[in-house]
Amino acid sequence: MGKINKTYDIHFKKKAVDMYLKEGMGYKTVGRELEIAPQMVRRWVQHFEAEGIKGLEEKRGRAKGPGLGRPRTRPEDPEEKMKRLEAENELLKKLLGK
User: Fold this and answer.
1) pTM for the whole thing?
2) Residue 43 Cα distances to 9, 31, 37, 87, angstroms
């Protein structure tokens, strides 16, 4: 079984970043205080410095911009749908021997 990743809210992440930046604590010290991995604190600080508070928002499961992610299917034209269904019916008739 895989390890279940825990997610932290933005306020918790901001607290960790503030402890590092404002209070001058190290990654390991902040990690020990908050019982999280020091690598997480380091990553959150890097995201915060690059993007500000938006860098601490959860990004998993979201497309990164318009037009990205799984493509939307366009609605099928009624004439195209009719042709496709007729072709399927013909194929089924051939397979069933009718």
Assistant:
1) 0.59
2) 15, 12, 10, 55
